[in-house]
Amino acid sequence: MVVGGRAKSIGVYAAAIGRAMGAEVDYMDHNQERLALAAKAGAIPIEGRIGSIGKKRYDVTVDATNKAEGLLHAIRTLANHGICSSASIFFQRSIPVPMFLMYSRGLTLRSGLTNSRSVIPEIVKLIATKKLRPEELTSIQGAFDDAHELFRTKLTKVIVTRSSVFT
User: Fold this and answer.
1) Best CA proximity match to 41, nearest among 9, 63, 73, 78
2) Strand pairing partners for 141?
3) Domains, the chain, ranges and CATH?
């Protein structure tokens, strides 16, 4: 389960990578564009808001909401001994974490920057074998000179390109 939100493309890419690795992935969000991108990557889109917890439990959840409520949602939807990975950045000094729930159900919470270098070879392999197609998850692409306008669109994934500075 990926709980999408303010971390925009991170949640969509998490869903896409999970699918590329063969997992069944549910992607929950309230944003139609992100739901469509996740569906395009093969995830099961679930239109919903944080807190609408169904009965289904997951071995792995990803919090991409940048909200304390989103993290709690991702933790509470875990199956026993499940792992929640939070891609959210919390600028508050502290946020509530249900430690007793986590202890009693053997849950693991992982937060922080990913060691990208260690997983790049596997990601490149997924792209080379066409199991992962990140180019299909781009919302809008344009020239570097138009970047100020492109980023104002607030779309999920904005790509800007620049001609070589050495020509």
Assistant:
1) 9
2) 159
3) 2-135 (3.40.50.720)
Q: DSSP secondary-structure letter at 158?
A: E
* Structure-token match 């074998």, residue found: 129
d(CA 129, CA 160): 25
Among the listed residues 5, 14, 1, 12, the one whose alpha carbon sits nearest the alpha carbon of residue 70: 5
The alpha carbon of 163 is separated from its chain's Cα centroid by a whole number of angstroms, namely 30
Taking residue 31's Cβ as centre, other Cβ atoms within 10 Å add up to: 17
Q: d(Cα 124, Cα 120) in Å, to the nearest integer?
A: 6
Q: What is the pLDDT along the chain (167 residues), one digit of tens a residue?
A: 999 998 889 999 999 999 999 999 999 999 999 999 999 999 999 998 787 767 899 999 999 999 999 999 999 999 999 999 999 999 988 999 999 999 999 999 999 888 999 999 999 999 999 999 999 998 889 999 999 999 998 888 999 998 877 76
**Residue in 114, 78, 113 with CA at minimum distance from that of residue 97:** 78
